[in-house]
Structures are given as C-alpha cells and as structure tokens.
Amino acid sequence: MKYVAYLAGALLMAGGSVAAHADTVTFGQFSQRNPSARLFQYVKLDSGATKKAEIHTTGTATGNTTASIPVYYIFSLFSLPADLTGIQSAHLTVDFISNLGTTGTGASRTQLFDTITSGSIKIIRDTPAAEGTGSRTNLLTVSFTNAELDASQNGGSFTFKSNSNSGISYTSDFVNFNPLADKDFSFSFSGANPTFSSVLGSSSRGMRFSGTGTFAVQPVPEASTWAMMVAGFGVIGFGLRRRSQAVSFA
User: Which of 54, 170, 223, 248 is the 20 to 30 A CA-CA neighbour of 95?
Assistant: First the structure.
C-alpha cells in the first residue's frame, strides 16, 4: 500500500533526528497520514517587550484552534499483542509554549520553550486495543519542560527537540516507563509556509507546516521479566541498528 512506503521513508528520516544520549533507543515514531497537510501551526504572540510563541496542532490547514490530527504511529517493541504490532491509526495533539525570543548568530535561530508552561504531546489510538479491558487508547502521552526549536532564517524545515535540560514524563496504557532513565524526543518540521523569519530576540512570524516525530529512552537494566526493546521495524521492512533494551508492559 502506498502509505506504508511513505511511512517507512518518513520514519527512517525522523529516526535519525533524535538528539538522544549515547545509549538511548528509539521506541516509537509517528508520521502524518496526509504528509502534505500543514496541520502544525506556529503562532507569534509577542507583545512589546514580552515574548511568547505557541506551536500546536490544528484540525484543519486553516484552523487556529488546538485540535488532534490523524497520524500513523508505530512501536518498535518486542512481544507486543497482535493489534499493537505494526502501524497504528491514531490522532496526535501537541501544544508547546515559549516565553522567550530567539537567539543565534548569522542565519541560525534557536528558540527555547521554557519551564513556565509545560508542553504536551498526546498520541491516542483511534480504536481501543483488544487486550486488557478493551478500553485502552493512550499510545503515548508526554509532558515536558525545556525544549528548543532550531531553525535557519528563511528556512522551510526545522526541528523541535528535547535537550540536556529537559524534564520529560512518558505515560502509556501499554508500556510502563517508570524504570527508565533519560528520555528524548524530536520533531522534524517541513513545508513551512511562510518560511521561518525572526528578528533576534523576538519570535518568528506565524507559520504552518507538516511534521514527523520520534521518541527515545535510556532504560535501566533490571529484572529479566521485562519485555525487550527491539532495534527495528520488521513490519515495514527496515531495521534500526541499536542495542536491545528492557521495558515492561503496563
């Protein structure tokens, strides 16, 4: 099917974008079902000396209200129940707030999304999974403080990622993240219209763009009863050469 070929390519590109620690392992990735739809919106909210910006998902390419968007999500985990193996149809909602302007030199721009307002990422399965109570839908929910947007002046592609100062919490109906140490995530944004443009110290002008994303962890080796994280996506025919790690299922 056409979307499988697109998803494999998009996720492979996104997989290399996580600014992870040396031993972190990618466990999940998403891509928009319609890759050309600009369903992410950057809103400039600067007011005089007060700097503020927001990135959120919108239900349509012209909407302004935060809403979920249709995505494909995939777990790279061993021993998953059958209905969690392979491509999951889901909806993604994100809301990121910055209370700071941009910094940088030359054409380089970085905007920190700080600790004042926690950012959120939610990936919810379209239908409940069969196992358990038959009502579980939360594939992944992320709450974080401290992240950054890295862009180039007049660029149409850029990244939003965690950094060494990030505080990240993962929850899921299907995976227990409690024993895990470092956590990382990265979004690759593309097709920005208009392109990124900011005066140093201020936010960029408003934009709309598409996105893919990856999520990673650094497990702490514990009991052998944990299921093993596998470095690959056999269901779509490509592998990620990473060390196997342990994680338990909720």
Answer: 248
